[in-house]
């Protein structure tokens, strides 16, 4: 039940459509049974040449039942499909609400292809739950019970046979098929996830695969995976067809048994001969919709696992927020890291540990250290993106987790190591930072980062593939000049630039950030003399922190050693 809780909750919101679907489904089923029962009776009666009005009443009943059955069937389809689409919409909104705050963490946990396959595929497959799992057995059982009650008045023996048939079709077959289904569905889902991940890898890595002449091998691997998946799918379809055939065969078998049984009663004189055709027609019609019970277990298993897999995406990721409070805009922000420990999912080693530091408003902070020492992770923690396992990050004395992230990001100007660019013009890619920025302001920003050779109309391809590394960095920095922010977080903002351009752009940044907090991650150790504080990291720990003079004054200091090493390398 827990597995299916997501779709059940969303479904029960649509009670009206559920009730109408069941009502019209029942009406369509029972009128169909009555229609064929009346037809059977009509044929038998006609043989005895009854008064014309008897025939007229019977013919009129048959016509009325036929029309009611058709209209009810339409009503059933209308409400069940309307309900299904509304349930799907509710599920999509729910899933989006759940994963939106976790987006960055989820991409650390799952391969992007797998998460995409999960969310799109699993949500889609939940459409079958209401349509093929939930209400058809209710309707079928209701039609069966009403028919069996009616049949009991004609022949208790036939009613008993019909009840036995109903139990086999509604309970025994689905239970057996469900057990068989469980195993097969698991491997199908795994295969689908693998295939989607492999395909995404192939698309993203196509250039590298081509350069290293591995594209053909990867393609072959993908084709093999696809063929295996197709084979599994075909085998599943075959299985479903066989199960449907078994149920259909059984239904006919029961109808024949009922015919023979009723014939026997007629021969014995315990049943009127005119009712024989009617009973046979009832038996055929009441079992008519039972093939849906053959596919029900497959859809139930699929819905259960889809619902479970979707819940798993956010289940253990629930942010441990106590209360979400908005930060007042323009409030100077003071960050305080207290013994912070960060570990990425599925990683053995922590990325950052025992990190304690303060970032006071208006200060200029540099984070330095060897590659992989945890500098970017520390910055991600300021943005609330890092998986902090213990310790606290306080913003003006309040736990960062209790603060609405939007109100924090509103005060930040961020340039990360890898910045995203959208397919569109330079202008669109700039205005993405500030929708109100005029063309003039955007041109001015381009000038500050020395990208004057670009016009605002120039095209940027997806992910900025037509820009050089340095141009991408400068375009990302140009965005920052369009926004007012009290905190600037810059992760190696100029690493791809020559030192002269770097200096000129940093001067521009300094001009606009005179009174702002600036945290910069640096690889090069030049130009750090004016920093208010330098945080030195090594293997996930802050090994030193202080001003340039303090750090250089340390006997056997780590920063001093790094600086000396860099000077020696530059001298060569
Ligand atoms: N998304 C991630 N998932 C798992 N491990 C990660 C992730 N990001 C970083 N790490 C690991 O965390 C550690 C710190 O990485 P981080 O990027 O913070 O270092 P860095 O000092 O910024 O490195 P660089 O100077 O090369 O950018 C590294 O061991 C890295 O492999």
TrEMBL record:
It is found in: Cell membrane. Keywords: ATP-binding, Coiled coil, Membrane, Nucleotide-binding, Transmembrane, Transmembrane helix. Its main location: membrane. The chain crosses the membrane at residues 20-44, 50-72, 133-154, 160-180, 245-265. SUPFAM superfamilies: ABC transporter transmembrane region, P-loop containing nucleoside triphosphate hydrolases. It is a multi-pass membrane protein. CDD domains: ABC_6TM_CydC. Residues 212-239 form a coiled coil. GO terms for molecular function: ABC-type transporter activity; ATP binding; ATP hydrolysis activity; ATPase-coupled lipid transmembrane transporter activity. One of its GO terms (cellular component) is plasma membrane. Residues 335-564 form the ABC transporter domain. GO terms for biological process: cell redox homeostasis; glutathione transmembrane transport. Pfam families: ABC_membrane, ABC_tran. Residues 19-288 form the ABC transmembrane type-1 domain. This is Thiol reductant ABC exporter subunit CydC.
